[in-house]
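User: Structure please.
Assistant: Input sequence and predicted structure:
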Amino acid sequence: MSFNAASLIERHAAERPDAPALAFPSRSAPTQATTWDRWTYAELDLAASEYAAGFRAMGVRPGERTLLLIKPSLDFFAVVFGLLKIDATPVILDPRMGFKAVHGCIGQIRPQALVAIPPVHAVRQVFRGPFSELEHVVTDGARWFWGGSTLAQVRAAGAAAPARAVDVAADDQAAIIFTSGSTGPAKGVSLRYGAFWTGVHAIRELYDLGPGTTIVECFAPFALYDLAMGSSVILPDMDLSAPATASPARVVDAITAHQADTAFASPIVWVNTVRWCQAQGVQLPTLRQVLSAGAPIPADLHRRFRQVLAPGAQVHTPYGCTEGMPVATIASDAVLAETQALTASGAGTCVGYLAPQMEVRVMRITDDALPEWTDDLRLPAGDIGEVVLCGDVVSREYVERPDANAVSKLRDGELVLHRMGDLGYFDEQGRLWFCGRKAHRLETASGMVPAVPVEGVFNEHPKVRRTALVGVGASGAERPVLIVQLEPGQTWEPGDEAALLALATGTRWEGLVTQVMLHPSFPVDPRHNSKIRREELKVWASSRAGGSS
């Protein structure tokens, strides 16, 4: 059996050639309705096959690291699947990490091939170091003075004899996908073909996706999974690398124009879109499910969705990471009926039951590198520790990063386990609860304090949009400070702080927080625009800790 992900596209093209595969905005104008460029599965597979043959003709070899710095488009997906067809290795990273971070990522993997927009090629003429091993360069758009080929030329070169997907093994490397850099330096995750294959089938089983489903996808890399499942994928008219800037009207237009039954976006997109729908009196009756990942979403958003979705439609919050997904999932019915009340009392955020093919262990908290798993590391249900992944979807290594592998990977016999860097625990029902990042925990004189369970108590205040708990002072004697971002239009009045702190009465966190600070807008991660960068807020709070709220 071949595990080549591109063979799944070939299968869909053979079985359902005229089925819609992709729709992408053909233009963006604020005063005009979006028009769409569309491909069927036959057209997607043909484009991928022609790119595959063209890349092979120019000398791109199996395993060759091919960095993609092109904007999302129909051709982006054809290029990715075309590279997979010939067993080249697409390298995908987020350019919004900033120049220094991107420069470092490229230096880590030293690509042999580059497919990029013209500004990238211009920049590499000056900053040559990370590109010193390039053998093949391709320009998406007009080629200037740097040589190489254009994407159009690559596809034309392969048109005469399109290539089929070559056979690959489950353990062969399919792609290198960089983490967002939101919780430390970005790292290149080695994605194996078998892990992608298993992830596709797990997601399909969890959310009943595949042929016949239409999904509006607001995160371009996930569209690769959607297409492998055979869904019809709609990319909305938005900057996919900056979800916070997405126009709610454009997101809704993508859903309604294509009668989508599923939609995925980061929490910030849904916060803005749902509130816009409520203000405009807009309903989304075709959606049977909404998915959101990247950060926990508040119960208020679950409740607001109930007012714009059809009865019975669910909001799912998948939990996972670049190194392994999906890990677990939970839906709005369970959140609103039970787990949110526990979140409000300080239990953390329930991320639900484990996904198929996933094993999770909770390990005692340590910052030390641990090469081998031992049974004394495992914590019982109810105890908060570090979440450790084990399963076919889990990446075994970071590429060219032995330092990161030492602190994030450990072995249990032949198994490679991944330390997520998240804190969590299992409840007595076998559900997994998220308690924040290990790096964001507080070490107080009274012991370890996880951030997310405490924040869940104070997020219930009606004027509060979100909170962040940080520690001020030396480790082992940190003083908890609660930083608050208010809902738009709200003002902080006398008595609000006392009412906020009173929410902790009767919880295990009663009396923990004695200082509150207001912040106008929390710094967030570049990929989902939703994860709070508490390390930056900690520096901010430390410089102001002597004052009051």
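The radius of gyration is 24 Å.
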